Known about the structure:
- The protein has helices at residues 31-44, 66-77, 128-135, 148-152, 170-176, 198-209, 221-228, 293-311, 327-333, 348-360, 376-381, 400-410, 421-446, 461-481, 491-506, 508-512, 517-528, 530-535, and strands spanning 17-25, 48-54, 57-64, 87-92, 100-104, 124-126, 140-144, 154-156, 189-193, 215-218, 236-238, 240-241, 248-249, 340-343, 364-368, 389-391, 396-397, 550-551.
- It has 555 residues and is α/β, with parallel strands linked by helices.
- The protein has three domains: 17-104, 2-Layer Sandwich (Alpha-Beta Plaits); 124-241, Rhodanese-like domain (Oxidized Rhodanese, domain 1, 3-Layer(aba) Sandwich), CATH 3.40.250; 325-555, Glutathione S-transferase Yfyf (Class Pi), Chain A, domain 2 (Up-down Bundle), CATH 1.20.1050.130.
- The strands form five sheets. Strands 4-1-3-2-5 form a five-stranded mixed β-sheet. A five-stranded mixed β-sheet has the order 17-16-14-15-18. Strands 6-10-9-7 form a four-stranded parallel β-sheet.
- α6 links the parallel β9 and β10 (215-218).
- The longest helix has 26 residues, at 421-446.
- The model is unreliable at 1-14 and 319-326 (pLDDT under 50).
Amino acid sequence: MFASPSLPLTDAAATPYLTAAFYKFVALPDYTERKAPLLAFCEARQVKGLILLAHEGINSTIAGAPDDVHAVLAYLRQDPLLADLQHKESISAKPPFYRMKVRLKKEIVTLGVPGISPTQMAGTYVKPQDWNELITDPEVVVVDTRNDYEVEIGTFAGAINPNIQSFSQLPDWVSQAQALQEKTGRKPKVAMFCTGGIRCEKSTSLMRAQGYDEVYHLEGGILKYLETVPPEHSLWQGECFVFDERVSVGHGLVPGPHQLCRCCRNPLPEGALDSPLYEAGVSCPRCHDHTSEAQKNSARERQRQWEKAKASAQTHIGATHPAHDTAARTAALLPPGSPVLYSFRRCPYAMRARLALQVAGVRCELREVALKQKPEALLQASAKGTVPVLVLPDRVIEQSLDILLWALAQHDPESWLPTDAAMQADALQLVAQCDGDFKHHLDRYKYPNRYDLPDGAADGLAHRTQGAAWLATLETRLAAQGFVVDRQWRWADAAIAPFVRQYARTDAAWFAAQPWPALQAWLATFEASTAFGRVMKSHKPWQLGQTQVTFPETD
């Protein structure tokens, strides 16, 4: 989803900003009651940043004037549970943050594995000055537990990159990684590292729980290593990504040369500024193909407003604007008892459900789900814990096809439901093939590192070929009649198109080169449609108490 541009508007070179990063795993049974007074204290001292609170502890990075940041740290340490709270400091000339947020979470760093407790079972801490000796031991498997875009700009020499997009994917990688398999009846020694140490505590706890006895992690993380180990003795290569306006740091925690994409919030890849896919505030080569033209136009307008504010020396970021009176209007559109849809924008299953609800005109409350931090309300509504889920006053519908068919049973203004029984049976069979064999091959083609693929097929291309065989049958149908089951767009088209889109975007150039003109035209028409643009609008992840989001939106 898009994030508002957040570049500094004034020259703050004369003002030093102290950044403090800290975390602690400790039982905080009253963490919900801590939010309001902590936020009020930070705001009173003009400290900005993000503090996460959960039952398992606290995780934060904050910044401001040195005295104010130290005042917040002192406020936290007056609590006996946080009296020994450790933190890391760095100085910058520009403000790293523009807002102060205190958020309640299920986990302070999301792994998604129940029963993992760093306070009870973590790996062995290794001091930065002893780290080199450990990771140069040939018997030690060194694992970088960070996301792929972080590893891309820097890591330790010889470290394994699991190629994960979120920390919650690490457990699956651990269970399949060849480097972690037993040899001669013994599990290997493992050394893990991350930015500041928090992910390592969770990941080494996971390893201990899975029977790895010799597990180590870098105390204080990469940041402490870069702060204390001289460059001439360092095994670190590149820069370390940090989640603030510094973007990256090097030895001595000196801000690095990297810039941030304001769309995907990831560091710009090398050569991005020279790429035709880069547009300030709108896209970069990494995310350009993942947003629609409507979304890009929206980002362009936000960038224009930011540039206008900068030119007139007005504050555009983090300012408090008058609230728009949307609550009454939303309440009128969503009376008590309205359906609630838990969804995730890019999930093809959720996409097909939204397409059907939109065409049927079934108005519901949309709750966008962050998959790495699923809301408790979703888990209470559905034990499966995956999207989409439609909550009705009298029941819960947990499967995407059931949601789609339920919506069309309420209202079918565009005749998505075939009237012919044989045609409906044909549609059901096609969608079953899509959700079965095709989805199996699609997953392994798109995410080969998540699966234990055999030697010689680890790149997933064999599954691309197997998926292509089914797409060839779709090509034959579409060439003959224009759509999946007959000569008009039906529910089966809406159910299948999101998955074909995901396949096509895995390697767009390869897909475009295939002899599938009818399939390619059908997919292009779908992606250019008004209906697709509307269901793909970005929304912030839902949190309890926030303003309701109406779906479909009214014009």
